[in-house]
Each structure stands twice: as C-alpha cells, then as structure tokens.
Design brief:
Strand order of the largest sheet: 1-7-6-5-4-3-2
Number of domains: 1
Radius of gyration: 19 Å
Number of strands: 7
Number of helices: 5
Distance between the termini: 61 Å
Largest sheet: 7 strands, antiparallel
CATH class: Alpha Beta
Structural class: alpha+beta
Length: 219
C-alpha cells in the first residue's frame, strides 16, 4: 500500500484542525457566545462574541442602497418561503411553525444554499432594522447578520457573515469570492423586489416617521 500523499496528509490535518475549531463555538446565547448588550449605532452589527469577525476563519461583507423604506425591504426579506422564487441561492426553504413562511424571533429555518443543507435559527430580530441568524452543522458554524439603515434615498442594507469549520477553511482557500458574489445576487434581487413594492405606495419615502429616522436605541 502506498503511503498517503502530502496533499492527503495536508487535507486530513486541515480537517482535524478545522473540526476542533468548529466544535469550540457554542450556540449563540450560550456562555462564551452571547449577543452583545452594548448600545450600538444603527449601522453597527451586534455580533455574538464567538462570531466577531476578527475571531472568525472566514468573513464577508456586502451592502446595497435600495429606494424603498426599511419596512418594505424588511417585509420582502422575512418572507423566507418566497426566497426560491426570486433568489437563485436558496432552495427547499421550510420555516418551522405556523408563520406562513415568515421569519420571526426564534424561527428555525431549514433550507439549502451553497450546496449545503442548513438548519438555521433566528437569534436577533428587531423589525425593521436588525436580524441575525446562526447556522450549525458538523463542518460549519456561521452567523449571518442583516442591517436595514434608513437613509435619504431609502434604505442601506448591510449583510455580513462570519464562519468557522472545515467548510470555512475550504472557502477561504479555494472559493473566497463565491459566497460574496452570491450575496450580491441576493441583494440585487431584494432591491428589485422592494423597489417594485415601494413604487406601488407612492409618497412612502416622503412620510415622516421610523422609515426615515434611525432608531435612537435598538434593543
């Protein structure tokens, strides 16, 4: 029998290292991975401790400006069961519970993205400004955060993700732009849908109130 190649040894060592790192990330809300309780500006993500980008194996950040108020963008975003009809990166989406396919605080979502079947739990939900969810499996721990920031033009949407585990290492080494590109597609599709919805409600952007005023304090 031939001895294992250097590549095989490297991959096995990487897998072992990555899985150890992945297993050290507790679920969000557990000791060592609590959501920050510090008061934050509306344009600052509330990262769980273990998922802070400087600690993560792999991180990405995407943003877009949408000519629609946060409430309209939010409504499009939280209807998860509709994602496959307009976002090519999502399939087999099932939101557990009687929510009509809409995300809520604590929702569990089963879906397929990036060629992976994920179980995802919503751990932050502050309509219509903040949302964050965690996905966990043996080879991946990931936190995906969303910010909807009111602007003069409408809404600036920021979506960042940080990851640990073997899949995070493999992405970093071989596909560093795949997830970022896919999130750009997601944001572009969200922009199109929200702007069409906003066009059906003329004058919405000109109305005073929460849609155009950043919250003073986000819980």
């Amino acid at each position: 029998m031939n001895p294992p190649s250097r590549l095989a040894l490297f991959v096995s060592s990487l897998a072992a290292f990555a899985l150890v790192g992945c297993s050290s990330v507790p679920p969000v809300g557990m000791k060592g991975n609590e959501l920050s309780t510090v008061e934050l500006a509306p344009d600052v993500i509330r990262w769980p401790q273990a998922y802070e980008p400087e600690r993560a194996t792999f991180t990405i950040s995407n943003s877009i400006t949408i000519a629609a108020p946060p409430q309209i963008v939010w409504e499009e975003l939280i209807r998860a069961s509709d994602w496959p009809s307009w976002y090519s990166g999502a399939s087999n989406v099932v939101v557990e519970g009687d929510t009509n396919g809409r995300l809520e605080a604590g929702s569990t979502l089963r879906w397929r993205t990036m060629d992976q079947n994920l179980v995802t739990r919503v751990v932050e939900f502050v309509p219509p400004y903040r949302m964050g969810w965690e996905s966990r499996q043996a080879t991946l721990k990931a936190y995906h955060a969303w910010l909807l920031i009111p602007t003069v033009e409408g809404t600036r949407v920021v979506t960042d993700e940080s990851q640990f585990g073997l899949l995070a290492h493999l992405q970093l080494a071989f596909l560093p732009n795949k997830l970022r590109d896919l999130h750009d597609v997601w944001l572009a599709a969200l922009k199109e849908r929200a702007e069409v919805a906003a066009a059906k409600q003329p004058g919405k952007l000109d109305q005073p109130g929460p849609a155009n005023t950043p919250p003073r304090e986000l819980p």
